[in-house]
Design brief:
The structure is a single chain. The chain is of the alpha/beta class and about 350 residues long. The chain folds into 2 domains: about 220 residues, Rossmann fold (3-Layer(aba) Sandwich); about 120 residues, Alpha-Beta Plaits. About 35% of the residues lie in helices and about 25% in strands. It contains 11 helices and 14 strands. The strands form 2 sheets. Strands 1, 2, 3, 4, 5, 6, 7 and 8 form an 8-stranded parallel beta sheet that branches. A hairpin with a 3-residue loop joins β10 and β11. The two termini are about 25 Å apart. The relative contact order is 0.16. The chain binds guanosine-5'-triphosphate and magnesium ion (MG). Guanosine-5'-triphosphate (GTP) binds next to α1.
Length: about 350
């Protein structure tokens, strides 16, 4: 079997990575190219994995740590996907609060594992708002992490460009190119299916990957990661019928109001509510103006809710907020099972950390 073509899509929490993976996978399947996906999180129970699997994709999940701190687990996941699809293209999404991927993932892959994977250029997705913020300053917390992500990118891919006018987009492309002259700047909207094919062609055809190194101060990086409380929760429902649509709307509304009311910085709060015939995906990537609810048709086991929340607050407060919101939004439902995992991400301790570009 030929080595898989491995495309790493980084970028901060909520930048649009999973949406891009989904669009790219569909495009590759249409071209007759076998495709698999690798997701990642600090804890089990991912909305992203459930969403990608329920849409018929081959998926492996690395949970319990980021890719760089569990390189063997990451490599196993890539191998497992590549074996299942027979080489092909593997798209991998590192957790959004992770950086230094060029030195911890791409260099060791190029150096030692070219028999497993041929790496494509490191793509870092940039939500326009975050990109603008990072062009001005690096600061601390989440902003420090995302600016390091842009520093190491081979390609900075501006996301959600449907939210920008033509003039705003031109300006942002120019400013991004000035701020990161070593990166190729591209732009995409998965919502309007603009730029996905162009980006895919660029990463499939370009052979040089991991050309840049970010100077990452691990103390500031660790403090930035630790400023986010992390919650992954699963709920199951009994036979009592209830209005799923209304519950999904209520849950998103209550969460948005609560985080705004407490002035808490939301990295990404997402949930997947599954009735067995329909699925609702709720997202919050900032204040309540960013709240989005999407519905799709599905035949699945159903009667479950998965919530993933990354918010700049302690895990206890996060758990209280989410449990209260779920209890209120699902007051008409019978909750038969609850599983909650909360954590503060620990200090990153990568398996490999190369000093130089290979
Ligand atoms: N307007 C617009 N919204 C988008 C686009 N792509 C993604 N989004 C929205 O941005 C939010 C986050 O998208 P995801 O694809 O889940 O982002 P992510 O980077 O995978 O998030 P994490 O895995 O939590 O880090 C969702 O509400 C998406 O619907 C886009 O092209 N346009
Ligand atoms: Mg994602």
């Amino acid at each position: 079997m030929d080595p898989t073509r491995l495309i790493l899509v980084g970028g901060f929490l909520g930048a649009g990575k999973t949406s891009l993976l989904m669009s790219a996978a569909e495009l590759l399947k249409k071209r007759g190219i076998p495709v698999g996906l690798v997701t990642n999180d600090q804890a089990e129970g991912l909305v992203d994995t459930a969403f990608l699997e329920e849409n018929g994709n081959t998926v492996a999940e690395v949970s319990g740590s980021c890719f760089c701190c569990n390189f063997p687990g990451f490599l196993d996941a890539v191998k497992s996907v590549a074996n299942r699809i027979g080489g092909g293209v593997t798209l991998a999404e590192p957790v959004g609060s992770c950086t230094d991927l060029s030195m911890t993932i791409l260099q060791p892959l190029k150096d030692k594992y070219s028999d497993v994977a041929h790496t494509a250029p490191l793509t870092v997705l940039g939500d326009p708002k975050r990109l603008r913020r990072n062009i001005r300053d690096r600061k601390i917390g989440g902003n420090y992490i995302s600016s390091c992500q842009f520093d190491e990118a081979d390609i900075i891919l501006i996301s959600k460009i449907d939210l920008l006018s033509e003039e705003e987009l031109d300006q942002l492309i120019r400013d991004t190119g000035d701020a990161w002259p070593d990166a190729k700047v591209m732009a995409v909207s998965t919502k309007e299916n603009r730029g996905v094919a162009e980006w895919l062609d660029a990463v499939l055809n370009e052979t040089e990957a991991g050309r840049n190194k970010a100077e990452v101060d691990y103390d500031i990086y660790a403090a930035g990661e630790a400023s986010y409380g992390w919650l992954n929760a699963d709920f199951t429902f009994g036979d009592t019928p209830f209005d799923y649509q209304q519950a999904a709307e209520r849950l998103l509304g209550i969460l948005a109001e609560t985080f705004d009311g407490k002035n808490l910085e939301v990295g990404h709060v997402k949930f997947l509510l599954d009735s067995g015939r329909r699925e609702w995906i709720g997202n919050l990537t900032g204040t309540k103006e960013t709240a989005m609810l999407r519905k799709t048709e599905h035949e699945t086991e159903g009667r479950k809710l998965i919530v993933n929340a990354r918010v700049e607050t302690g895990p206890f407060e996060l758990q209280n907020i989410v449990l209260k919101a779920v209890a209120e939004a699902f007051a008409d439902a019978e909750i038969t099972g609850t599983q909650i995992r909360t954590l503060i991400p620990g200090r990153p301790d990568p398996t490999y950390r190369y000093e130089r570009i290979v």
